[in-house]
Write a structure and sequence with these properties.
Chain A has 149 residues and is of the alpha/beta class. Helices cover 37% and strands 24% of the residues of chain A. Chain A has one domain: SCP2 sterol-binding domain (Nonspecific Lipid-transfer Protein, Chain A), CATH 3.30.1050.10. The model of chain A has no long low-confidence stretch (mean pLDDT 96). Chain B is mainly alpha-helical. In chain B, helix 6 packs antiparallel against helix 9, helix 7 packs parallel to helix 10 and helix 9 runs parallel beside helix 12. The chains are: A alpha/beta (149), B mainly alpha (348), C mainly alpha (387).
Chain lengths: 149, 348, 387
Amino acid sequence: MSDPGSSPLVFPSVEWFQALRELVNSDEEFRRLGNIDAVMGVKVGERVFVITFEAFECTGVREGTEYDLIDADFFLEMTVEQWRELVTNTQENDGADLSHTLNTLDLMIEGGISDNATGDQLRADVFFRVNQSLQHFFDSSARLETVFE
Amino acid sequence: MATVDSRTKYWEQAREQGFDLSWLSQLQDHVMGDGVEEYSANDTGRVQGSIPRNNVARFGAYTFRTKSEVWAHNLTKLYEEFITRQWSSATDIPWETIQALPEDIEAAECQLATFFTQVEFVASDVPGRFISTMSPDYQEVRLALLAQVMDESRHLDVFRKRALANGGGLMRMTDSVSDVVGGSTDNAREFTEFSSRLHITGEGNVLTLFRLGEMMAYNDAEKAIYRRCAQDEARHVAIGVLHLRYMNEFSPERREEIHCYLDEGESRQATGAGGENPAGQNQLTSQALAVLLGGGKDKMDEGQNILRAIRQRQTKEYFQRLKSAGFDDRIHNGRVSPVLLEQYKAAA
Amino acid sequence: MYGLSQILLPLRLVMALEEEQQQAESEGNEPAAAPEAPPSANAEPLAWMKDTVQWGVRAEPGKHGLTMRDLNVGIYGEIPESSSDMSRRPRGAFPIPGVPRTDLYALSAKVDLWADNAVDLYEEAIQRRWMGHLEVDWDDITPQPIEVELAMRQLCTELAQQASMETDIIGQWLHKMNYAYHEVKTFLASEIFDTGRHYTLFRRRALHNDGSLGLESAGQFNRRMMETRPGWTEVGMFLYMVRGPLTLLLYRYGEAYARNRADKFLFRKCVEDKARHMAYGMAHVKYAVDNQPPGFGQGLGNLMRGVERDLVRDLKDPVLWEALAIIISGSVANMAQGMAVVEDFKQRYIEDYLKRMQWAGINKTEANLSPDLAAFLRREETAEAGG
């Protein structure tokens, strides 16, 4: 949960991802998982967020447009409802349960959730190369008090 | 929970649908033997203890397929130590502690680092060559060797980093081949010969030196390098000691042959031939070490004195390894190199 | 000038060493006390102090620490197109004349092994290392119905063998690679270290819950990889673009259908490792296709015609697929449903294979694919219940 007294964070929003960024950057376990050098797009319905990881930390969070996905190593795309289910499930289980990990969703949801916008397989594979860090990143959202727009 | 009867029914129904499932029955009936076979008939790369098939082509062609050629006890425990004690040359060395050094000291550091970069190539290549020629039934040995290859790669990496981190550069390469007496680590085709040469003699000498890294280090980064490399090197030496101990116990008929390998290794250690021991006499690196140990090129005499003591310590530790492996009879029966014996007595 | 022994040596160590030395000298034990001879390459004492090709290098650590890539400055970063050096001279070290060859490195041309990303992947492998025997919560892996247990043992036996074969394959080639390309050699060292970890963990997973091992692999493609001789590029294509996607998918499905968090973690970490291996392999094959003479990529494509038949033979073997179907469906009784997912798996695998080959510049499409493999892509027309 976020600090007592602080307002719940709205998902999706820059503030929500920013709070997640701060959580993992102060999390020794996230650092221990190893370096992660990736630009990740997150597409929630029509909205796009760009999350940048460099070395051992998350260095940037911003809202962007679909054009930004071209420069991302990979982007995760789900409907608003699917994202909401993931975030809720993560909170209820202190991390994604067995059927809501990123890899599982990528296999189970029709068309997958992760891809590279230009079809560059090498960059798309970054999703797999740093998968545990990404899972840890989203699992950390269990500690955020979240409301949905 | 399905009962045995209902399970049998399901399986039968599945077969009627076109599934094979014969493998399922094979697995159910499979009882793995305990222990490692003395002879490995594995020609297909199968996992030790798995169920062989009779329709797989034989492509393994493993050279080493008897346990007594390669085995050592307790390698699984050692391998786990390999796994848990890995480190990063990029982030586990406090590179920021390196400060500018006098030119002669920096040159000596870089010369030594160049040597280690090169010699770790040998220690990486040669074990690697043995891995794929060894039956997977002796996977514990293969695992120890592949972990060593990883360690040695990191060593050549960290010493290259040291050479290029402080205003210096790589220096003169080492001639490790000329004047070699007997077989070399490179040329060994037999596992015990290779192991006695690399793990016992070569890495044993380097381990002693790394353990005394405090004496050669001018900053915390160098201390960390030597300390961590010493940990790694100790595991590599352990592979050799454990193997020789096994050979002594279970292949006594090969003791004389092994003594011959040790003769060659000692000859190289005593003369410095082969250039594998940086502290050896007549070596380029021994000059660099004398500069570092003495504190400058004008204090090399002092450095040489310390170096002499280091050689004695190398020999002392080598003798202790012989004892641990059960080959210390050579120390007492006149077979050991007289030069080393003298050093040992001096160090006692 | 530093007086090292006065400034830095711990006093206890100095005293011990001096004592040893005094004793040795008093007993006349220092062997021959031979004066240090000058290095063979130069008669002048300390001449080596000037023997450097480039001095004054100061690689600086960055956010990732001091990486191998940071060292590639000046002459030290010049990667030769080929190397005739057979003496293990570190790249950029001062050469001396008259050094005999130590080995015959068959792979001494950059095009035969290089990938630009190897240097970063080496550091990534080290930073993302893990300790499965400690980090996997083995107690979390409780017994499942016997059919699922047996199927899991079979899957894990297959994965352990795939890892072990990878060790063998890389082991055959690693020592043939010239040290001018140490970035690749060190990365491959990290890869065989990974394969050792995978072997150990999947064997352990198979034996968990009083288990045992299953059948060995079908073997035809293992044989192809082991017996291939023309070059590392060909082997790399097989290992990273044909076998690699299969292994990666097995890990991914293992994660997706895991029944506990421990298995989830185990498979997920293996996904990371395998994707890293494939990143090198794909980059190398593409580098080779881009830099070898025209027609090389076409040759690789042609080579696949026979190789695909080997692959088909393995894919037709039912053992792995039936095991996977049982794991997915949770029982033999429901394995027809599981097999439908397995058919998805196979389709995904072949699509992935094509995608990666095309990425590397090899003209591999459904049109020139082995008909048996192409059938996996049109499974709606061909698949039947029961596989």
